[in-house]
What does this fold into?
Amino acid sequence: MFKSELRKLHRKSLLRHLVHRSSPQGPVIIIKNRKYINFSSNDYLGLAGNPDISRAAAASLDTFGFGSGASRLLAGGTVRHSELEKALSDFKGTESALVFNSGYSANIGIIPAIAAEGDIIFSDELNHASIVDGCRLSRAKTIIYRHKDVAHLRRLIKKTEAGRKIIVTDTVFSMDGDIAPLSVLSETARGNNALLFIDDAHGTGVLGHGKGALAHFGLKSAPHIVQMGTFSKALGTFGAFLAGDKDIISWIMNTARSFMFSTALPACAVSASLEALRILRDNPHFVLRLWANREKVINGLLELGCNTFDSETPIIPVKIKTIKEALRVADSLFRKGVYAPAIRPPTVRDPRIRLTVSAAHTEKHIDNLLRALKEVMA
Ligand SMILES: *Cc1c(COP(=O)(O)O)cnc(C)c1O
It folds into this structure.
């Protein structure tokens, strides 16, 4: 079964395989007994292996055990879940917040809860796969607008008569590392009586001194803005959240199927996220360090003559002409002890090496990356 399909993938250089670490996630990881400098994780602040977070999780494990046993609606949740939601609404400056099991699960639950048949969703062409899947599940008509092209969006939105209109966008685009124009998107939403749903997976802990994309643009939470973010990237833990007005949170809690029909996150994962939020709040230098490292890497790449698309964040794609060449570059880097994988279709249109920079990278890690790239691309 599927043998000929698999062969086809292999011929097109599109067959993927799993990589198994034998160390914590971090700036250096161990694969098959060898150390690699890691430019592939979303652990932007180096918190994934943070010992304070492990201790908070361990203490919670002692108190609550591992399993949560049921969905939130059936007492699967704990007082830690409620503490985390309070901490999130304080952090985000919203009335309320709700924890989801993952970013993927949040998007496929929230989008169908706010958009239904008869409604229209306007979606950026480069939105994350979980947004695409959420739009499909909603049964609303989905209209794709050109990447970050607000003029295009405005033309499309003016032409349509619909029940509800919803504009949906990543804040930081996960494969290109550029930032959605949230101020104009918010105005466009308000002016057209639409909702704006933002996915702040790569903005949380990175933009706006860690507070996220709205803070980056000096925007405040508003009734027409619904935001989700994840714990799984800069915060280094696991899970996701929705933040917004009381009514919208209450509506989603009562209708999002991925929330209602899935077992609650274990309390230890929730306690880990509470500790991660505390660390982020008390250590503003982590975010500063991340951005300083990002500057070092991008300046080095530009000096090497690399094409970094329109990256403006710690996600830095390096354009490579063909899929085969991207695989060769990634493989040669790997041999030199640098882990920076190739990203290829269908994930992206143009093949690339995708680098993600962390606050935990040292100057030496960055120098090694740039030297290896120079040798490999020569
Ligand atoms: C990673 C990611 C998600 C999914 O989050 P998980 O917690 O990993 O499920 C959703 N949206 C975007 C933009 C992402 O990059």
Observations:
- The pocket of pyridoxal-5'-phosphate is lined by residues 102-104, 107, 128, 130, 170, 174, 199, 201-202, 230, 232, 240 (CB under 6 Å).
- The two ends are 42 Å apart (CA to CA).
